[in-house]
Amino acid sequence: MTVTQIFILLLVLFCFIGAWYGLSYLLSPQMDDADGIARVTGNCGDTMEIGLQIRQGKVVKTHHWTDGCTMSRNCVEAAARLAYGKTAENLRLINMTHIVDDVGDIPDSHLHCAQLAEISLHKALENYFSKNNPAAQTDTTGGPEKSTGRT
Prior knowledge:
Layout: H1 3-26, E1 36-41, E2 47-55, E3 58-66, H2 70-83, H3 88-91, H4 96-103, H5 111-132, E4 146-148
Antiparallel strand pairs: 1-2, 1-4, 2-3
Helix pairs in contact: 2-4, 2-5, 4-5
């Protein structure tokens, strides 16, 4: 292989990776009108964000984002998918076991990704309740992760 061929191959690879990340960003836009949203950073350094739009007591739209690995992305996507169509009260029942079941096989070294997705979902729910019904707000996580609810 010549230097020119290697350069062209690297250029094509760079364009492919750029297009992949660009599409990932465009297909997961920020939810500006979220009723409940949370951004949580876990002990591993990954950050997840889940946004919920709730109408007539049910989740009608979700937003998810992470800066973590593929397993983090799969877990936060599964949490958002599991939340869709559920009532706000039923969101409390979603836990990391449901997320693991939805994702499939997760190595033991990445189970914290499912836990972080669960915590992010519950923090978004807490944010929703704090905006709409302060008396119903409860702590559903019990974890040491750092949370910054965004409005």
